[in-house]
Structures are given as C-alpha cells and as structure tokens.
C-alpha cells in the first residue's frame, strides 16, 4: 500500500486516486498521501504541518515525513526525526531506512550511515536490496572514499546492477575520477545501452583525453 501511495504522489495522479486516500486514512496510512504529495510539490512546511497534526503516528507517517525531508536534501532533520521515531518505540521498515541512508549520502555522514546500515541488518533483520547498497556506494563515493565504494561493490552478495554502477558513476563525476567513472559507465552501458548519464560521462572522459574517435560512439 505504501508503494502505491508513493507512486501516486510521484506521478501526480492524485485527482484519480481519491479512493486510495480514503482507504489509507481508514487503514493506518493517515497523512502519508498528503505529506508525500506536498513534499513533491515543494511545500515542505505544509507537509510538516500535516505531519504535526497527525494524532496517531505510525511507521508510515513517520517514514513519509523522513523521506520528505530527505528528498529536499535536508541533512539533520531526517536523522533527528528517525531517532525521535525510535524513541517512541516504532520500528522502522525498509522504506524508512532508504530515506535515512539517502540523507546520510547527500550530507556525507559516513559514520552515521555505517551505523544505520548495520542496524538495519543486525538489529532489524532487513536484508539489503540493490537500492540500499547503492546508497552506501554513493555515500562512500561522495565522501571521496572510493576504495570503500569499490569494496562495497565487490563484496555485496548481489550482482551489481544499474543502481550500483549508476551510484558509483555519480561519485566519480563529483570527484573527477575519470578512469573509474569510465569503468562504471561501461558496466552501466552493458546493462542499459540507452542510459543518458553514462553516455554523457563517457563523452566527457573521451573529450578530456582527446579520444575524439570515441566521442559520440
């Protein structure tokens, strides 16, 4: 149900999904839809106002507000809200951790990210999927800890996919790691030949190295 709510907010089809809103309020998802919709539209303070008015907050409403702050790249608010949620003895789920790890990545909070990722696995018994490893790769990469980003890719129990190579490629772009970025982009192309980001990065690398014959190929 949470994924349906998030999808409706993301696609902007709220006018066609009023029944979801009614169902959500009756089944423990109170506030989740308007929080996500308002955040998507840039009205973060209004989203926060909806959250503050919720009388019976559950993991869905907490997660919605955490993710709202995260997508607007606030640094401390998602983490502060996450810890407050845990103080109320509400157990976070996978979507909660995704929002918090995303916030850690963009704020380059490496140690906090490590602890939260370990807590997700060891304390809450959530098995990480590609998206979670992607957050860790991007976290290490943004902090210019490229060796740890590579180690994460090499040791993760899943085969690297578009998410993983894309996260590594983004980190390489930030820090000008042309050789590693080229490697990640090529792996990305193997999985998704029409990926625009990989094409742009490779073109820039080839142009910088004056490999004109490869630009646009």
Can you characterise this structure?
- This protein is mainly α.
- Helices cover 71% and strands 0% of the residues.
- It contains 13 helices and no strands.
- α3 packs parallel to α5 and α12 (178-191) runs antiparallel to α13.
- The termini are far apart.
What does the secondary structure layout of this molecule look like, with pairings?
Blueprint: H1 2-11, H2 18-26, H3 32-40, H4 44-53, H5 59-71, H6 76-87, H7 94-107, H8 110-122, H9 130-142, H10 146-155, H11 162-175, H12 178-191, H13 196-208
Low-pLDDT residue intervals, each spanning 5 or more residues: 1-27, 212-217
Rg, nearest Å? 19 Å
Number of helices: 13
Q: What value does the average pLDDT take?
A: 80
Kindly name the structural category. mainly alpha
Q: What's the main sheet like?
A: none
The percentage helix is over 70%
Beta-strand level of the residues, as a percent range? under 5%
Oligomer: single chain
**CA-CA gap between termini:** 43 Å
Secondary-structure element series: HHHHHHHHHHHHH
How many individual β-strands?
A: 0
Shape, please?
globular
């Amino acid at each position: 149900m949470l994924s349906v709510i998030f999808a409706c907010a993301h696609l902007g089809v709220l006018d066609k999904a009023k029944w979801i809103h009614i169902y959500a309020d009756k089944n423990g998802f109170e506030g989740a839809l308007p929080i996500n919709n308002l955040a998507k539209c840039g009205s973060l303070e209004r989203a926060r106002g909806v959250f503050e008015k919720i009388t019976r907050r559950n993991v869905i409403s907490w997660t919605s507000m955490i993710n709202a702050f995260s997508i607007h790249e606030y640094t401390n608010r998602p983490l502060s809200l996450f810890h407050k949620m845990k103080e109320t003895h509400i157990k976070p789920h996978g979507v909660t951790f995704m929002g918090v790890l995303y916030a850690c990545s963009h704020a380059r909070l490496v140690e906090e990210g490590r602890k939260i990722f370990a807590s997700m696995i060891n304390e809450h018994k959530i098995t990480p999927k590609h998206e979670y490893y992607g957050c860790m790769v991007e976290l290490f990469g943004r902090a210019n800890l490229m060796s740890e980003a590579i180690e994460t890719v090499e040791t993760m129990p899943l085969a690297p996919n578009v998410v993983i190579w894309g996260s590594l490629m983004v980190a390489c772009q930030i820090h000008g790691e042309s050789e590693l970025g080229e490697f990640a982009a090529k792996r990305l192309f193997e999985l998704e030949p029409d990926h625009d980001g990989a094409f742009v990065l490779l073109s820039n690398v080839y142009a910088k190295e004056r490999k004109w014959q490869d630009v646009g190929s």
